[in-house]
Specification:
With 425 residues, the chain is of the alpha/beta class. It has three domains: 3-99 and 248-332, 3-Layer(bba) Sandwich (FAD/NAD(P)-binding domain), CATH 3.50.50; 104-244, FAD/NAD(P)-binding domain (3-Layer(bba) Sandwich), CATH 3.50.50.60; 340-401, no CATH class. Helices cover 30% and strands 24% of the residues. The protein has 13 helices and 22 strands. The strands form seven sheets. Strands 3-2-1-7-20 form a five-stranded parallel sheet. A five-stranded parallel sheet has the order 9-16-10-11-12. Helix 4 (164-170) packs across helix 9 and helix 8 crosses helix 9 (315-334). The relative contact order is 0.16. Bound molecules: flavin-adenine dinucleotide (FAD). Flavin-adenine dinucleotide (FAD) binds next to helix 1, strand 4 and helix 2.
Length: 425
């Protein structure tokens, strides 16, 4: 079992695989997409000395004597020729990244509402000339808005729920820990000013409306806790709405491995080791906005060391990872999620759009009998059990239920058919 398995082939996972392979240990990189690497860059990383399982999803991991067994399925999720494999590893590096977070509000499930990441990935399909509002808190709003403008859309306004400038000014060292990241954000913000796009601070969309798709939104000014200020409602006629409320780490596998989670991210030490022996974590899984590739390089070297390889301390990468953590902490402080968003919900607002579970139903389930853990809520209401497997709603529901500490309770990390399970030995 002198083997490291790396799960996730984004910047963190590819860096981990390369670093471990460079130390002379056997490395398997499992990535759900056809190719590994940074999706923002056309050049893909070379992975010499790494067995790369492309289009492969890890759906479960289990502890075995001296390590973990990783269950992988390869091939398109609904394809007839998916194959299964179980790989045993002494060391695991989890680099499963994060997915978008969208907070619910009345009308949030209407067609014509997209996420900032869909815009940045070029998959939102907003047409030239369309009137768009970009709303939420976070550093992705300015780049999403500028890319819409470049594509010919008319960005009416950017509504930023927080007051990041004040937060950055109160913590300049954290922001300047990643000068490139801070510079990118400043460039996009300046570009918006150049296009006369107003950025309204402490403002948010309270509701979206439209018959078949979104045609208007109601926006309000917010206090520091995100409670709407009286008499501040304003209506915008629009063709599309883009929302982004940050990103939330993909915790299923880390949860299945039993890794400790703090503030919604996997807790790691300076060597990227989690609370579970032999399991390392890197990238957005451990916090949004850090130096993913540097963390991956540290995790890969630490995993190889655990296997007995002679490893020189990756001081340069550890320094970068530390600086990345300072930047990530500054971002988290500048773009917090205020508790007032719960006040935007009506009884009818769907909190789990896949399964059509409303806020009212969730509240009734919470008031009902039982100890009310998140697993019980899922079973009683169906919330979180739809096709997105809770990616869209899981964190919101945990917070509405006051069970945010339950995040990362683990489970199946990717869809798997019963027939496939029956075929596994
Ligand atoms: C569309 C888009 C645009 C972005 N634009 C910017 C930007 O302009 N500026 C900026 O600073 N940052 C941007 N980011 C964020 C940046 O890409 C991340 O910081 C970085 O990708 C984090 O790297 P990571 O390796 O932790 O996670 P990711 O890059 O998300 O990689 C995680 C990988 O794990 C794989 N995976 C997850 N679960 C499994 C599983 N069970 N089995 C197998 N594989 C699995 C996923 O397929 C994914 O490829 C953008 C992100 C996206 C999605």
């Amino acid at each position: 079992m002198r083997r490291v398995v790396v799960v996730g082939g984004g910047p963190a996972g590819t860096a981990a695989a390369k670093a471990a392979a460079a130390c002379g240990v056997e490395v398997v990189l499992v990535e759900a997409e056809p190719e590994p690497g940074d999706r923002r860059r056309a050049d893909r990383r070379r992975l010499d000395g790494v067995e790369h399982l492309a289009e492969s999803e890890v759906w479960a991991i289990e502890p075995v004597a001296g390590g973990h067994r990783v269950h992988v399925r390869t091939g398109p999720t609904d394809g007839p020729d998916r194959t299964g494999r179980a790989i045993e590893a002494r060391a695991l590096v989890l680099a499963t990244g994060a997915h978008d977070r969208t907070l619910p509000f009345p009308g949030w499930d209407l067609p014509g509402i997209h996420t900032t990441q869909a815009v940045l990935a070029g998959t939102a399909g907003i047409a030239s000339g369309e009137r768009v509002i970009v709303a939420g808190p976070g550093p992705f709003l300015p780049p999403a808005a500028t890319s819409l403008i470049e594509a010919g859309a008319r960005v009416t306004a950017v509504l930023e729920a927080g007051d990041p400038v004040a937060a950055f000014l109160s913590r300049p060292a954290g922001v300047l820990a990643d000068r490139a990241g801070a510079g990118e954000l400043a460039r996009h913000t300046a570009a918006l000013a150049g296009h006369d796009v107003p950025i309204a601070r402490r403002s948010a969309v309270m509701a979206a409306s439209g018959r078949d798709r979104v045609t208007a939104v109601l926006a309000a000014r917010l206090d520091e806790h995100w409670n709407p200020l009286p008499r501040s409602l304003r209506r915008f006629e629009i063709d599309a709405l883009v929302v982004g409320f940050g990103r939330t780490p993909r915790l299923e596998l880390a949860g299945a491995a039993g890794c400790a989670v703090e503030d919604g991210s996997v807790a790691v030490n300076a060597a990227q080791a989690t609370s579970v022996s032999g399991v390392f974590a890197a990238g957005e899984l451990t916090g949004i906005g850090g130096a993913a590739a540097a963390e991956g390089a540290v995790a890969g070297a630490a995993a190889a060391k655990l296997l007995g390889a002679r490893v020189r301390a990756p001081i340069k990468w550890m320094r970068r990872a530390r600086a990345g953590r300072r930047f990530a902490a500054a971002l988290a402080e500048a773009y917090p999620i205020g508790p007032g968003w719960r006040e935007w919900l009506s009884e009818e607002t769907p909190v789990c759009p896949c399964e059509g579970v409303s806020y009212g139903e969730l509240r009734r389930a919470l008031a009902g009998p039982g100890e009310g853990g998140s697993r019980q809520l899922e079973l009683v209401t169906g919330a979180g059990l739809g096709w997105c497997r809770g990616h869209r709603c899981g964190r919101n529901i945990a917070e509405l239920a006051g069970q945010a500490e339950d995040l990362g309770h683990g489970g199946v990390a990717a869809p798997v058919r019963l027939g496939e399970l029956a075929g596994e030995r």
